[in-house]
Amino acid sequence: NVTVMNRDTNKVSTTFKDVAGLDEAKTEVIEFVYYLKNPERYKEIGAKIPKGALLYGPPGTGKTLLAKATAGESGVPFLTMSGSDFMEMFVGVGPSRVRDLFAQARKLAPCIIFIDEIDAIGRARGRGGLIGGNDERENTLNQLLVEMDGFSPNSGVVVFGGTNRADILDNALLRPGRFDRQILIDAPDIRGRHDIFLVHLRPLKVSDPPGIEKVAQRLAALTPGFVGADIANVCNEGALVAARESVNKIELRHFESAIDRVIGGLEKRNMVMS
Ligand code: ATP
């Protein structure tokens, strides 16, 4: 079902420079970039590339961003679908969406498939129900396993899965020949937050002095516990506050009040959850 598929079949413009920090994770995915740029060379020499990798870690840390940037670096199409998109009320829709997704990918290869929230279909069998019922989910998971087993390592299709809950995944998904590699995408430390702030401050009109380097340092120190998605949010909120005041440069205080707003939002979210 192509309508639910978010396809970036043209060139993806996101690259590693849009992804701050995550150096180890980038080193791990670089092998896929070499491969996707030149699958023929791997085939000729007889080297087998892993079929996929699981990107796991807290929400908003850049899993989707890194998967997309890997496609951008490689110059290949990016096909993405969320695990929950496979779960429908009608029996048989999940497995057929999996089939469609992989059929598309084979046509577009070399390319990257990214299945976000893979735990929605890939949680260990025999665990709690979801919409569509357990059988439907199991059938969808089985179809995914069939598809992953069915393509050869040199088909030019690389599959990334994203999850916040690697601990509940069915072991079958993690076997060799499926998601061979598991890559942790963790919340950033102060250095990482600084680097992420720089990425998101660069396109903005930030007052100088103090200049974006100083602003990034200060904001990183003020935001323990923030992930990349929160930081992107702070930068945009700061710009909105400044625009409303009709000043033409964004000052540190605008970002500071944006942090208060984001923290307020996070607290509300936690209250709802607990
Ligand atoms: P989820 O688990 O909720 O799907 P995710 O880990 O896939 O989250 P993304 O969707 O990749 O998170 O991140 C959301 C946004 O946050 C990105 O589009 C980007 O703007 C920003 N962001 C997150 N991590 C980073 C990072 N390391 N560098 C730069 N920006 C980041």
UniProtKB/TrEMBL annotation:
<comment type="similarity">
    <text>In the N-terminal section; belongs to the AAA ATPase family.</text>
</comment>
<comment type="similarity">
    <text>In the C-terminal section; belongs to the peptidase M41 family.</text>
</comment>
<protein>
    <submittedName>
        <fullName>AAA-type ATPase</fullName>
    </submittedName>
</protein>
<feature type="domain" description="AAA+ ATPase">
    <location>
        <begin position="49"/>
        <end position="189"/>
    </location>
</feature>
